[in-house]
Every structure is written in C-alpha cells, then in structure tokens.
C-alpha cells in the first residue's frame, strides 16, 4: 500500500461511495464519513502514524483495503 501523509485519495473505479470507515490495525474505528461521491479524498492528518484499514461501502458492496499513514 502507498503511504498517506495528510490525505487519502481513493480510486473507486466510477462507483459511488456511501460510507467510509477507517480502523486501526487492532480493529478500533477511528473515523466514519457518510458521503455520496466517486473517488473521494479523506483527510487523515489527525491520525497517528501507523497501519490502518479503510472500509468502503457502495450500495450493498463492501471493500476493505490497508493503508499506511506516515
């Protein structure tokens, strides 16, 4: 995964995202955003450096990806 410093750019392949959740590696939810957009940008500047998971909801589909916060 590519490291992120202040923003996380999500490529959703033209799918509309309804909700974004970010979890620590241990599974604690640290951010939840309700959105209606394609390829959102998420401000992660408040997160401590480390490994996180981003969970994307698009309709009934869910995707989970890992990212590194510098």
Short description:
The protein has 70 residues and is an all-beta fold. The chain has strands at residues 3-4, 7-9, 16-24, 29-38, 41-43, 50-58, 61-69. It has no helices and seven strands.
What does this structure look like?
This protein is mainly beta. The protein is built from no helices and seven strands. The strands form two sheets. It has a five-stranded mixed beta sheet with strand order 1-7-6-3-4, with no helix packed on it. The chain has a two-stranded antiparallel sheet with strand order 2-5. The chain is globular. The protein starts with a strand and ends with a strand. 7% of the residues are buried.
Encode the helix/strand succession as letters.
EEEEEEE
**Fraction in beta strands:** over 45%
Q: Averaged pLDDT, please? A: 93
State the major sheet: 5 strands, mixed
Total strands: the figure is 7
First-to-last CA distance: 12 Å
- As laid out across the biggest beta sheet, the strand order is 1-7-6-3-4
What does the overall shape look like? globular
Output the radius of gyration: 11 Å
Give helix % range. Answer: under 10%
**Structural class based on helices, strands and sheet pairing:** mainly beta
Number of helices: 0
Low-confidence stretches: none
How do the helices and strands line up, and which of them pair or pack?
Elements (H helix, E strand, L loop, with lengths): L2 E2 L2 E3 L6 E9 L4 E10 L2 E3 L6 E9 L2 E9 L1
List keywords for this structure.
70 residues; 0% helix; mainly beta; globular; two-stranded antiparallel ribbon; five-stranded mixed β-sheet
């Amino acid at each position: 995964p590519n490291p992120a410093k202040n923003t996380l750019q999500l490529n959703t392949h033209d799918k509309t995202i309804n909700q974004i959740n970010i979890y620590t590696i241990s599974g604690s939810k640290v951010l939840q955003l309700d959105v209606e957009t394609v390829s959102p940008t998420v401000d992660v500047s408040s997160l401590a450096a480390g490994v996180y998971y981003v969970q994307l909801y698009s309709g009934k589909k869910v995707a989970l990806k890992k990212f590194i916060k510098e």
